[in-house]
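Cross-check.
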Amino acid sequence: MSLDTKNVKKNGQKPKGQKGKEEICSKPEEGMPRKQRWSFYSRNDEYVVKKLREGKANAATGTGWGFFDKYFIFLWITGFIDALDGVQGKGYSRKLVGITKLILSYSTKILLGLDSLNKVPALLFKEIALLQLIGFTAIEIREGVCKRGKGKSQPIHKDTLGDFLDRLTDDEVEYIVSAAASLLCKNKYIKGSTYILDSTDLYISKVIEGAGTKKYTKSHYDRKTKQVIKQEEIRHGFKIIVLMEAESKIIVAAKFAKLNEHESSYTLDLIEQARKNIGTNRIKLLLIDNAFMDGKTLWKLKKDYKIHFIVRVRTTMNIAADARSFRKISTSDDKNIIRACRGKGKKKIEVIGIHSLTSYDQYGDENHSRMILRKDFKANPLNVVMVTCWDGQEYKSGKEKVFITSLDVSSPLDVIDSYDLRSLIENCCFRELKQGWHINKYPKKTTSAIRSHSMLTLAIFSLTSAFNSEKGQLQTQKGIRRLRDENMHSIHKVVIFADGFFAILDIEELLIITRAPPLFFFRVDPVEVKKRFNLID
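Predicted model, tokenized:
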């Protein structure tokens, strides 16, 4: 049920902005302020009761509020639905359907787990209650929004959603992701200071304009020859690069890129985007995969943004080899080495913290990199944590896991515990997005449609993470109470739709209005009901 909470008044009063009944429009899209054309019914019990007595009500439903009812209430109370009004639909020359209706329709398709637009007509467009939640009127649901397709596509053709995604601009889809992050931060769903930066690939079956191409080397063991065989494979597609808050699993910034583009070139853009979305001083620690390894970027993070980092080092890097040379050196021989151990048996973990290694000469600003070949060049120091044993399995010499960090490594186990949070983005974000949210199932094989589909999925994923939190459920319940009358939560209530308005009535009131009153009344006074609605038998 779609409710315009800003216009909700007491029973019998006209919605705000209506001067007289002659101005009540036959469809919500006609004569209403621009902001309301796409969205919600407004409440007018008196008008709906009049239409009900005339036998001209459009639809009726109970007040059994399910998941989607609560979810859309959540979108309303966080301000996300209002924020969608900022998407202007620049790719359209004319608009038969409001942009926000299309965004909410596709968002609902994502929430339903539909991996194909072909499933939309049967599994979404047949659900009248859901369509009313999204904002479609009874006339649109029954006849469609376009006269040309009247009676054929109800309320719209499935391909309209695919075309809509194709027409959204890069700025518009980034705006939606940013709006979700900003509003969730404003509503205090984002409280942590540790953030995870990572990317995942989105493959397509053939080359399309705007896609990237990347060569991979795959290895497999041949049992017959008893050898490891390496094969080269060429893949086409894109990648999404996201910055996620570790505690809430909310994505605060995201970029869509070609498959062959290097992730490190987007790091600072994502940081800037996140700072605009959630505030300049919220990010204190950044957990980074080695794909984002770039000395100038790491230097800027620490010196300009005051953000600490932990990065896993590639095996072939000099600083990795340098760190491994400290494995057999005792702490008594070198005070810069700290050894730590925790657990026993299969839970045993051993790490070594090393202060101030200077083997990563790219760590510095622009001027620093120009001086690398000079004799008087001095590299900037970085701290290192090396894992020599994990879950009871001791790593062989040269196979240790090495991490560089700007944090102090006096307690190296704490550094490793922090970096272990990075696995959340792979297990709780990317895997979930691909298996449960079908982010890699594209509605249309064009770059813009894949980009819009991916970014919208990220926004809805973040909003759902917040909605499913304890705070999200509590805030939703408060929103429902704000939306209802004192007794609206009663199981005895029904909702009646007429034209662009709705009424919330007790079942006993409904029977009186429809001239079929029961012999006994338990909740309402029939005299008061007739007086309130000016009913004349």
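The chain has 20 helices and 15 strands. The mean pLDDT is 83. Passed to J.P. for a second look.
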